[in-house]
## 1
Amino acid sequence: MNTPQGLGPYAGAPAATATAPAPEWRRLDARTLLVHCGWMGAPLGSLGLTALATGGRISSGAWITLAAVAASFAVVTAIGLIRWARTDFRVTRETFDVRSGLLTRRLRSVPLHRIRTVDLTATPLHRLLGVTVLRAGTAGSGEGSGELSLEALTVAEADRLRTELLARAGTAEVTEDPVLARISWRWLRYAPLTFWVVGGVFVAAGSVYRALHEMGIEPWKLGFVQRAFTEFGTGMLWLTIPAALLAIIALGSVGAVVLYVENWWSYCLEWSDARTLQVRRGLLTTRSVTIERARLRGVLLREPLLLRAGGGATVRAVAGGLGDKEENRKRSVLLPPAPRREAVRVAGGTLRSPFPDAELTHGPGAAQLLPHPRVALRRRRVRGLVFAVLPGTVLLAGLGAAFTPVLLHAAWIYAALSTAAVLWLARDAYRNLGHGIAGRYLVTRSGTFSRDTLALRREAVAAWTLTTSPFTRRAGLVTLTAAVAAGEEGYRIPDLAEADAPGFAAAVTPGILDEFLAHPS
Amino acid sequence: MPEHAAAPLLRPPRHRVDPRARSWWRTQALLTLSGPMLLTALVMAVLSLLFFPGALPWLGPLLLVVLVLPAVGYLAVMPRWRYAVHAWELGDRAVYAAGGWFWQKRRIAPLSRVQTVDTVRGPIQRRYGLATVTVTTASTAGDIKIAGLSCADAEELSRRIGEVAQDVPGDAA
């Protein structure tokens, strides 16, 4: 295995450089140095606010902070200067070379054919300075392969470099309309349909509290906050609690809409040429992800519970070279929450063949998914009852028996409501289960909190895993996992019939399992 | 898809791991879980005997049920159960391995996707003359780990996978 970051030029490079003169080494943009100082904004700002709040008296703690900021500034600037001065890069005919390091000079040379994705990201500070960060993802998402990142280049330079990195022979122009989707602000109505609407408010409140706390302001000690709380407590609770809930939901919805706009401003998904798919988006922080078609292993249609109830869905790419799990989550998004029909269309456009949609019963994109055994429904019910209904009920009943009969009533109310919810969710989860083959794609669907329909290229499956526990063995079920060198790496098909799983895996990828199969006669 | 009347079943891999693996798993259990649990029970029993003899009537059974029995049970059951499950096979086109005990896992990876074969011998494994062979593919969810092979088997296996993987055409990506 050749590793891309080995010292010395890549084995193929000398032959190329012999015929053509090696291109010049290029530098990063000098404005990068200013970007490095951007982090100082937060501490200096909070220091200034503290000074304002305390009327100009700066405590000794603040002086220490200021000194620390100054010292860090010196160190960061020095490191930034060294990094800027000692980093350069070039694109030869076959490789992308980056040199860096002060004492230990390191040359990373990646063959161009191994570069799968190019990601340009610019934070508001970067954009203010007209620069952007370029990251080139290589094949193999394991540690060591990693990615090359250049911080930062001018926007024009970065665009040119991206074209160079992804340019290879035979980039034919696309004949059909290359643009798959653009933002439509009517989709904004889907923004509040995420679970983060309520959670986000608490996260925001938490960070505001922390910021105030760091400035030396204790919100609980402020007069108007205390008054508000006592009034809340003495007021009519049956009115104030729903009102507070409504306020939180309204606030969260506004936040969700703002986030949607920030993330998806001037969103555009298009085939920039026949072989590369490009997503551009962002208002303050702009992001542009380029995915090579050969690395695109499939498409995932996600329908989180609330979004599904509102008839919406999002689309993700299952592609290699998008970085680790965290980065993959950010970069693989192809479509924001949008109408389901639109999502199916975009998924099909990404695959360049109709998306196998299990909701359709006929037509070009219809996919027949096989249901899973009934016993899978029982498992989902039991799981919900044991893990959601039982602990809460026992806890409330125990506390009720010990302290107050009010909690006993709460216990049976909780038991009744949660049982109904669990049964509904279990039925939904069971009905969402399905698997099948649609032409070149393996299609699976599962999940209730997020119903995920996956269309995966059959030849992309790198390994099959069958997992069982004593419970599933008794029920005659097995969970099949398809390993892929892309996206989440492993895609589960939960609770198949034990008798069907090997046959299904063998049908998806002929030849791999056959020698281990026993045919009962 | 089950087109035939009787769907094909996945048979277990042909070769069992080395019988010494049972001792290795037993030692491992003793060092990581059973040993500390038994030791805790012993210390608590002794302390109670020395300082609070009155607590023994209820503490003794409690320790027995919470610490001693699970520790002994794990020690007695896990290695045998594992040995019954763990198996491996190198086919013409794929590697096949079974592992686990309570949760069991069978994994098949085509040789055309094999990237590296690692043989690891831990300090305890070395005492029993065992080794673990890990076959990696491009996907982290596709790595096959065969634990508890005899050293000779491990060497032979990794050599043969290396040979076969070269012959089978395919892309490792």
Note: Chain A touches chain B through 45 residues (CB under 8 Å).
## 2
Amino acid sequence: MTDIDGKKTAGAFDIRNVIGALLALYGVILLATAAFHSDAPKGTNNSDNWWGGIALLVVGLAFLAWARMRPIVVEER
Amino acid sequence: MYALTLIQASWIDYLIIALYFAFVLGIGILASRGVSDSVDFFLSGRSLPAWVTGLAFISANLGAVEIMGMSANGAQYGLPSVHYFWIGAIPAMLFLGVVMMPFYYGSKVRSVPEFMLRRFGPAAHLVNAISFAIAQLLIAGINLYLLGSIVHALLGWPLWVALIVAAAIVLSYITLGGLKAAIYNEVLQFFVIVAALTPLTVIGLHRVGGWSGLTDKITAAAAQGHGSTAAQQLNSWPGTDLTGFSSDFLSVVGIVFGLGFVLSFGYWTTNFVEVQRAMASQSITAARTTPIIGAFPKIFIPFITIIPGMIAAVLVTEIGKVKAGGSVAGGSSGDGVTFNDSLIYMMRDLLPNGLLGIAITGLLAAFMAGMAANISAFNTVLSYDLWEHYVVRDREDSYYLAIGRYATVFATVVAIFTASLASNFSNIMNYLQTLFGFFNAPLFATFILGMFWKRMTAAAGAVGLVAGTLSAVVVAFLSKDAFGSWSTGALNLSGQGASFVAAGTAFVVDIVLSVVVSLVTRPKPDSELVGLVYSETPKESLVDADAAGYPWFRRPVPLAGCALVIVIVLNVIF
């Protein structure tokens, strides 16, 4: 499965890349919000974004890594 | 006062929402490149791996009606609401995967009603296909209405703008990419919904002082007469509050047979919205594994839906007042706060900008998941089952593909109109359960009898189905409140208990009449029942030849056993 030379892989069509990209982007946005955003609705805590951001980034990167390590090979029809 | 929105969203939240919709439409466009014929469009070319269809299977059911309804149940009843998952879903999902899926997938039918046609002929098929199609339109409308009212409450958009924008987005990705786009989006939605609800649960539990803090606060509130007794709210059994039965014994029987057997088997094993996801998978083993893989996340969803509801009842002032029997103006509907607003108030009180955006996205995603699932199932049944068999026959494939796309547009427009119907019902779950009782309970009886008793005749299929559905309607009319003010109250049944009894009646009436009618009419010859009835189907065609060589976690039966053990353990703990 690791040898993908000369074979067509699903690439952007692989749903894991889509999930990974979206979750990782969300993670980055939350981390940036935690770092730079100063106001939050009354009673809420902006620092909660640190935890959410880290968790999303890790899960997102895990999906990207999974798709990279076990790519879907498209069979030529 | 109400001119202001419930939640203060900032540009960060809008960015997160916009990013999601860019991805959703992107998937529609990507998926459309792979659509070349109608099997691609309707069944996704039967090419998807089991984990994708398994998550889509759950996600199709994880609409916002479910999420908000379950957190509402959590706020109102507490822990007994878990029965909707552990009793009311898991056993039926496992049964679908282990027992029924080989017939659906192996007989190569393209929809659940088509199985009905092959087994019982046109009368039963028409009843099933038409009732299913209408139910989908209704449910899509309910989803859309809720979506509109949430967007209105959260972001301040006028209701009609929210309805049309949401409908347009769902429409564009389904017409572009068909079932594949719907399924891919459902998988994406699943993760966004989990990412939306998990922080709410974790932060909420942190605020109330963990699980022990939550139980202490619920106990204290119950002592002041908020809701039912603490013992009722903090133990899943016997759940008399939920069923409305006064006797513990009857309540347990009602939950196990009414919810756990008749309602849930009827829903999960015959509902084409769900089964369609499994039919899109790449092999019979993948199809069987689909609902079983879906069962695992399903087991844990109550922790991120029911628990936030329970927290809301003690943490959110407005929900606490409602539970104490008071009324609070405002709420997402504008006519006063209800338990259905629990999640929204939790979002307001707990989530900072950023996490808030993800939570709003998750809710929007959930609405679209529900609506897209209904519409993609509707267009398949309309084109394959109704149009191709009864309206215009024997045309080329591209013709039916076009009909499927028109059906999608039609369904979306109808859903916008149906959306206004949904506003007349206060308890969303009750309304949905009522519908399930009518359509699904007799269906399951007919299917299971038809799959295992070859003597059952075509006439029996049609008679059982019609009489079963009608008997459920009659019970609902005689109950106290299943149809709101239209119910006469002749039977002392209310709440979910009325739905359980209506569904149970439908099931029994269907079985009895099917047997009686079968014995006086002529059965189909055995040769026509191959692939449809257990005794006439070669055993090797019900499994993959190479499936025995798979590791245990890819085989349906060991996986199902594993899920069953987890559910039993959870029932013992809670």
Note: The helical segments of chain A are 15-36, 48-69.
